[in-house]
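User: Good morning. I'm curious how MIG would be positioned relative to this chain. Could you predict the structure with it bound?
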Amino acid sequence: MIEAFWEQNRTDVGKQFPGSIHKFVEEGNRFFFYDLNACLMVAVISENIIRVRLAPNGHFLPDFSYALQDFPFQPVEVTLAENETHYKISTPLISCIVTKEGFLVSFFDAEETLLNEDGFSMHWEENVQFGGYNIFSSKKIQPHESFYGLGDKAADLNLIRGRFSLWSVDAYAFERGTDPLYRNIPFYIGLQNEKSYGLFYDNSYKTHFDFGLFNTNEVNYWAEGGELNYYFIHGPHMMDVVKRFAYLTGTAPMPPLWALGFHQCRWSYYPESKLHELAEEFRKREIPCDALYLDIDYMDGYRCFTWNKAHFPDPEGMMAKLKETGFKTVVILDPGIKLDHDYPIFKEADEAGYLCRRGDDYFMEGPVWPGRCRFPDFTHPDVREWWGGHVGELVKQGVAGVWNDMNEPSVFGLGTFPNDVRHFYEGYRGSHRKAHNVYGMQMARATYDGMVKSLKNKRPFTILRSTYAGGQRYGAAWTGDNIGTWDHLRLAVQQCQRMSMSGFSFVGSDIGGFTGNADAELFIRWMQFGTFSPFMRAHSSGDTIEREPWSYGEEAETILKKYIELRYKLIPYIYSAFWEHHKFGFPILRPVVMMEQKEPTTWYRQDEFSFGDKLLVCPVLEKGATHRVVYLPKGNWYNFWNLDFLEGQKEHTIETPLDHMPIFVRAGSVIPQYPVMQYIGEKEIEELQLSVYYCEYAANSFLYEDHGDSFAYTQDIYTEKKFHYEYQAGKVTILQTQMGLHTPRYDNYRIRFIGLPVLPDRVVMNGKRTIGYTQTEEFGNLVIEFVVSKSFETLELRLPGVE
Ligand code: MIG
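Assistant: Good morning! Here's the predicted structure, ligand included:
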């Protein structure tokens, strides 16, 4: 299909290209170039971001996007230059050249390095059937260029030589190579000549990207409608590209702290007694867990916002009881509303005109779990408000999180809605061709906003399956219906990294695989990876063997528990990495190419990543693996488990017994840790543990702390702490600076200083007070421990005989 579309359109006589510029208009930071029909707009968004739009007939479409957040206006100094062949628009950091013949666009950095250029002119083809145009953009592939991004693809991390479509699909039991999937983000990163940039084609229609498969020298993009409208985002570091993409499309709001704990799910846990059994089992076995999920069977005949009273006679009572032992309840919602005139939710939506209609005004109807359904048009603010109100009622009953499923939208038999279904699209009306890819994120938005309203000042938790760019503002994502196979574990590792690079950090896969039966080994390896997935949830389909941490026997349980406990110990670190994402747009998971983009050895690495910037995680992805090769980026690293000190910028072979997933800590790091808790908030933190990893260079570490559950952080009530580690001639110094208004309740830090070459003569706080310490040895490495006030400003460790 795509093939045919492409071949045909590539050569079709119907295609039109721009001619030569005969008129030029400047309006503030926007520049308009005209030939006899078309108009090209170049708009400077910031020093690092330039937007390009093309109107084939000279008239731009209304400027509306679901992806963009309200980003602040940045005044930029823009200069325009013109010569015989081209115009050049420059900010202090980048410039965009538009040729007078053919409107060819290229981008350069301040050093005049070419970053990206058109392969041939943007062009279009009238869409006789639907109106508007099919639009095309072609970019040259530079020597050794690599590509990353696009949201979710079951393919290698480096997209080179791949062709992909963006069109949300309920991809049950997808496999490597299945395309498209549930989540579609038309943003990619190019990396060449040590520099990187991003391109975000903000267009919600069905879209295609070809990275050098059709023509080895070109990236080709085409969309089946809408406007050719893209943002060029300058790096040069990939971290900056992702950060700037977040400036445009937003980041995840801070989750309630409990949402970073372990979640247990299955399709389905019922009746009520089953939930209590699970809760008791977790607590009895002392395996930490924060959330239990109710899949579709909690509803009455799969009717949204109802309860199956036979199984759940007293939902409020049940959820209150679960809460007593620290369990939050998360419930699923599907977009399909059962066509049932005795069902109040249906009646309301029907009478208010909230349900989607076909081209000829018939209702959009199709079968899903409840039987025949109609579907709310979530692209209408009134519909979202109505939906959100009902979500609010669930919240009042005690629901702590909502799971948005089937929001591609998925319809049995049809796959999804037919193209002629109409949508309000915030008043910019369109058919399903235009709204399909955003439907899921608008459902999630309705849910999220409804929760915000009803929770007052507390943070909602939502998860979503389908999204377009920007969906990270409304919830976490899980990767959908995967399979319990080794290749799927490998895929999940790639998917989570790719989503993270595509602006969507809060993501996880169904630990163990949704369908298929993972054996104990695979489940353990998956849990180990899950420990370092921003969203950590075990989920499985009802036709599989049970998938609780104790389902695989005692030996497995011990290991699974060790990793779930590790997750809880690392909560303050994980939370700080989350803050870095929320506030600054940094991805939480970072493939090694983002750490060292200049090193060719990183361009194709996809089986390891850093979580935040201190921990390098190397999941074990092969059955029976007794060891794996890891690549450690530049610097020195500690093996998290045995404290071995290792040199970076090379590969190491690490042993991987079943209870051992290689994790490395960057030398010089300060890693905050909590004691193991059975659920977030179970214990007051009496002393915050900080593990410090010795090195002989300088390094900074950060710690973010806040209330954990409220929106006070949006009023600047939080604390950011910086630990600056320094080493000089036998003296280690740690300087602490703090900013912010939140005061944690604990008074002291317990410092675990790892890897010192000798015992220090003295540990001195704030230049005067000597602090006593105890010493131990772990795996032959010296570890000293001491307690200091949380408000210390400097700590000095003087090492005798070390220069
Ligand atoms: O058609 O609600 O991806 O997590 O358990 C299947 C039942 C519908 C698909 C979701 C999966 C969920 C399941 N759902």
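The mean pLDDT is 96. Residues 267, 295-296, 332, 405-406, 465, 480-481, 514, 539 surround MIG (CB under 6 Å).
Let me know if you'd like a different ligand tried.
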